Amino acid sequence: MSKSSDLIQGTLDLLILKTISLEPKHGWAIAKRIQQVSNEVLQVTQGALYPALHRLEQQGWIRAEWRASETGREAKFYALTRAGRAQLERELAQWERLSDAVRLVIRTV
Amino acid sequence: MARWFDIVRLWLRSLMRRGRVERELDRELRFHLDRQTEENIAAGMPPEQARRAALRGLGGLAYIEEECRDMRRTALLETFWYDLRYSCRTLGRSPGFAAVIVLTLALSIGANSAIFSAIEGVLLRPLPYPEQNRIVRFFLSSAAYPKFPVNAFDFLDFRARNRSFGSMAVMSRADMQLSGTGEPEWLTGFRVSSGYFRVLGLRPLRGREFDTRDELPGNERVAILSHRLWRARFGADSGILGRKLLLDGRPFTVVGVMPPEMRHPGNEYRPVVYGDTVDLWWPFTFEGNPNQRGSHYIEGIGRLKSGVPPTQADAEMNAIMAQLAREHPDNDRGWRVLVIPLYREIVGTAPRLLMVLLGAVALVLLIACANAANLLLARATGRQQEIAVRLALGAARSRLVRQMLTESALISVLGGAAGAIVATLGVKALAAMLPGGFPRGHDIHVNAAVFTFTLVVALSTGILFGLVPALQASRPDLRQSLRGSGRGVTGGGRHLRLRNSLVVAEVSLACVLLIGAGLMLRSFVNLLRADPGFHPEQVLTAGIALPEETYGTRKSLRRFYDQLAARLGSLPAVGAAGLGTDLPWTGYDDNLGGFQIEGKQPPPNEHFHARYHAASPDYFRALGIPLLRGRFFTDADAAETPQVLIVNRAMAQRYWPGEDVIGKRINFFEDHPKDKDWSTIVGVVGDVKDTPEKSAAAPAFWWPLRQMPFGFAVMTIAVRAKSDPAPLAAAVRHTVGDLDPALAIADVRLMHQIADASVSTPRFTLFLVGLFALLAVALAAIGTYGVVSYSVNQRTHEFGMRVALGATPCDVLRLVLGQGVKLAAGGVAIGVVCALALARVLRSLLYEVSAADPLTFATVASAALAIALLACYLPARRATRADPAVALRAE
Known about the structure:
The structure holds two protein chains of two kinds.
Chain A: H1 11-19, E1 25-26, H2 27-37, H3 46-58, E2 62-68, E3 74-80, H4 82-108
Helix pairs in contact in A: 1-4
Chain B: H1 2-16, H2 18-42, H3 47-58, H4 61-71, H5 75-93, H6 95-124, E1 135-141, H7 152-161, E2 165-173, E3 176-179, E4 185-187, E5 189-192, H8 196-200, E6 206-207, E7 222-225, H9 227-234, E8 244-247, E9 250-257, E10 280-283, E11 299-304, H10 310-327, H11 329-332, E12 336-341, H12 342-347, H13 350-382, H14 384-392, H15 397-433, H16 448-473, H17 478-482, H18 493-529, E13 539-545, H19 554-569, E14 574-580, E15 592-597, E16 608-615, H20 619-623, E17 627-630, E18 644-648, H21 649-655, E19 665-667, E20 679-685, E21 700-704, E22 714-721, H22 728-739, E23 745-750, H23 751-758, H24 760-794, H25 796-804, H26 809-843, H27 854-880, H28 884-890
Parallel strand pairs in B: 5-10, 7-9, 16-21, 18-20
Antiparallel strand pairs in B: 1-11, 1-12, 2-5, 2-11, 3-4, 3-8, 6-9, 7-10, 8-9, 13-22, 13-23, 14-22, 15-16, 15-19, 17-20, 18-21, 19-20
Helix pairs in contact in B: 2-3, 5-15, 6-13, 6-15, 6-16, 7-10, 13-16, 13-18, 13-24, 15-16, 18-24, 18-26, 18-27, 19-22, 24-26, 24-27, 25-28, 26-27
């Protein structure tokens, strides 16, 4: 079970930020959500998810809060900070540029 | 902004609330596991399997937890924390070892901080005047008189012609007697020209400062008071301005009060050192013929215009001096102007002294470092096996080095903390011991800068003495250590070599210090042994100043002095009582007079001159200044009898070399003296230097008080007591009060106090350097003992074998002592060479001792060897008791 084969390095951050951009979610929900939306293509290695969450929190992009989950049990919910929202915009733009470029190369050659 | 706030908050939380953060991480991951397990069960797995699958999905709880912790970036600190606790435990296990290192470090760091606080206060802190670096002092200078006061009319020309100075002023000590209300009080005063306070950058708290109108003759009856005087004597009276004071019997009007932060900038002639109390100022007036510029008694001070460097001002002033020399060739030829920044003038020779002291304590600190490194090395050798095991188990070398550095840093910080206490006490002691007149002595305090210095020194010391042992220890010979070679291998040659060289370094540094201290001791002994030229024991002195109002004529002065000398001389406890215009060893008053010698011509462009004084008949007897030829003054030398003089030996030798001076005549009139103008030399007295460390006395002569050519209104009383002089103070005060109730005596001192004070600087230096040298020697002895004792422990087995093979205890003793002496001899040799190289620095602090004094060097070398032998003796004795049976059994 290798970490980097599932996801391109760096995109995990983007996915996490995007996933919680609508509403705060806890770790398990984030993993589930990414899996569902990508039609089960993107398997977030759970081993990579939590360190990534802690890193993003440490960088000030997201903020954590304990509150009751849908089952009633307390869970740690992550939400975007204002700075995180800006960061998401930047990462999205960068991703668009990259994927455009890649698409261009693939089509022309 | 908010983002950084979040980051810091989180980081601190991870650090401070570690337990809580860990629990939260645990809860978060468990929540995930449970949800995944539930989902797996819902998908049809049996509970046990569902749980395992969930765990597998997460990929190892411990691993993830560790990763998350890494993300919090507190790992570095946590290892530090861990290392710190580990270090505390290991140190706690060998408290003796820890105490020795911490104590030696505390002493040496504390000493460094104490000396640093002196350097900070005296050298680094700017003077308390606005833009103080623009203030300069100026003097005249010639070949014979390197630093001389200026002439008043020359000053006026300087002031009018220069472009470098924003303002410029002169000052001249002029104490006065305050009478009228209450006890008469002697006030330290200065006559200053207009702009004096502007030069210092200070304004009066109340009233005004002097302007050029106050400089006109007749306008000098105004005064500016110090804050202290205003409060102490006048109760901070708000109506002080305009009030009349009786000073020297004349009424003065108060026109100003200075603020409390006014500091006297220090002066050279009849000096009041920087920062000492000055009570009042009154105007300097420019009187007399502006074309006669021979008299020099005022000192210049000025504030440069911004951007003008002192060198430029110096050049301009000298250009003006050259003009003046052309305009007034008689008086102004042969002088240069000396412009010196006030700061340099105030600190004087203190930087050199302080730097020598700093050098000495820095050496002590280096020795303490070498010592600590040595002890740590010894211990690291003991821990070699543990370290080897940890390395073999995969510990990173950097991790081990870091851990050992943490330990040494902990030791050094403990040492630094204790050192700060030592420094605080040390600075108090230092301030109390400081020689009188040491520049800026009041400015020496322990403050934040000193503590910062202590911390920096402590930490860098820790790294200095910790790094080498740590690098060494983390590179052990794995195979050998792991084999647990219990047999007498002496910790590897590498270690031993390193430790030996550390000991050699310690001994050599200690030798350098010891040699320095030895030289200073010799110099100090020379100073004490040098014949002072007088007998300071049992002599009480006091100052007196007669106000012009009551004692305006020479006749009235003479009458008062005659009565005073007679009354003092007839006091029952008094052996001899004299009056004179100066005292031995109190420095140079601005009393230089020119004269003509009968039958002699001065060399071109030079004058005959000497210090002039006046004295009553018993003055020399009271001070114990010996008569070499001729006679003292007697009561028969009166105003109307032929004029007589007493000269000192220096004057006799300078102007009449090889001749008998008794009966020779000089006079003080420029041209065509009448016969009665000539003064005849009737006696020669011994030389007394200005200050004891001066190389020679200056030529000087004395008038009899009764024949003084002008009125000396300031006089020194010297009484030689038959026994204890101290109780005489009251009698002297009464005698003066009986003659004139408005008079106060000042500066009541015992002559031996003056003599003591005049050698206080060398004594102070000697004491400190000696103290540091002792500390250094003790440290080096500990170091030598440590190394030899350690190697004896390692070689017990070998010694046992030697004894078994027939070596006598004496042989073993010789073997061990030989090892110690070899180290010490190496250290001493290096130390001697270093001391010779460094001797230059000391030369100016020494009195009649060569900086390469063979006696001192030889004594120190043998003392160092002897101490080394002593340090080796205990371990050597232990070596002789090595049991051959134990050694053989182990074989």
